[in-house]
Amino acid sequence: MNVDFIDALEQLEREKGIDKDTLLEAIEAALISGYKRNFNSAPNVRVEIGRETGEVRVFARKQVVEEPSDTRLEISLDAAMDLNPVYQVGDVVEIEITPRDFGRIAAQTAKQVVTQRIREAERSIVYNRYVDREEDIVSGIVQRQDARMTYVDLGETEAVLPLQEQMSNDDFRPGDRLKAYITRVERTTKGPQVVLSRTHPGLLKRLFEMEVPEIFDGIVEIKAVTREAGNRSKIAVHSRNPEVDPIGACVGARGMRVQAVVNELHGERVDIVKWSEDPQEFVANALSPAKVVDVQIFEEDKVARTVVPDHQLSLAIGKEGQNARLAAKLTGWKIDIKSETQAAELGMFGRLTTEMDDEDGIKLSDDWLTEP
User: Fold this and answer.
1) Exposed, middle or buried, 89 (CB in 10 Å: 0-12/13-18/19+)?
2) Residues 344 and 290 in one domain
3) Which residues contact 233 (CB under 8 A, 6 or more apart)?
4) Burial tier of 7 (Cβ tally within 10 Å: 0-12, 13-18, 19+)
5) What residues pair up with 151 in beta bridges, in sequence order?
């Protein structure tokens, strides 16, 4: 190795951020192992690389004793004083033993170490870049698939999209472009692994942030999100500016903004509702598109009893209870839904059935009591 090698390390330091001295120390440590392996040396050698010249030198380290028992590890006091009269018993003498052909071994070892460190540095850069993007959205291209994963090229690294994190209506082919949510970034022996999700509620939130400038600017705030990925989702929004309609901002002109989100989610239906501090109003909004006639709140049981027009009962409940279930998750309230006819027959809101609960005299209807 020579001055050109040192110059190359300095360039690596500038371009990759790999400290030159740290790299040289790693090469020296690797050369010690290489020397012992190739020259059957005792474990008391030191390798030194000139920081300016790149010259490689090997030294045997021996302890000064009166009478050496192992000449590989020890040197007599007389022999040490022949080298330098200042040596005393207990000192360590270094004697240069650089082999004639050690330069070839040094060059091969240096190449391996530098290559490994460059790979580690690049992996570290990728890890640091993506670990800061956890809970963010990324765009990538599908590379391949197997029974458990879809592998997505993000440009700098390959991410994995587990099968259970894919939506029921996702049908990707190699070359397809997709957007996904980063759930976590892990260090592995093969480098950083970025794990993606298409079912996480955070994906819906980030998509709206991308499509709606008012959300990005903080004028409109997403208060809650719930999804049954691939089928239907609900999002509650609130405007910090009374002059800005949060639902209109999210829908966009002719529905273009929300349609862009729906297209990315392959047709998943998105209900946008207005958030409110008043739980009665919020529960009523959450059951959209059904119109709610009345809501009664029971704080202790965290129950909201709602009445809807007769012809909208099935709409409020939704297919297989989906609308009511999503509304309950969105609001955090158990929601009991009755039609106006049912409510009248049951004497609502005084009580819902003639059966009484031991604690508060109320027996909740078990027809459509939906828990969050």
Assistant:
1) exposed
2) yes
3) 201, 204, 225, 226, 227, 265, 268, 269, 270, 271, 326
4) exposed
5) 144, 160
pLDDT of residue 367: 52
- What is the token pair recorded at 131? 């670990």
CB atoms within 10 A of CB 142: 17
Could you tell me the residue range of the domain that residue 85 belongs to? Answer: 3-128
Shared domain check, 42 and 89:
yes
Six-digit token pair at 1?
């190795």
The CA distance from 290 to 318, in Å, is 9
Task: Give the model confidence (pLDDT) of 246-289 as tens digits.
Answer: 999 999 999 999 999 999 999 999 999 999 999 999 999 999 99
Q: Is the dihedral of CA 225, 226, 228, 229 positive or negative?
A: positive
CB 236 within 8 A of CB 288: no
* Rg of the chain taking only CA atoms, in angstroms: 35
At 218, which CATH number? 3.30.300.20
Q: Any idea what DSSP says for residue 357?
A: -
Total structural domains within the chain: 4
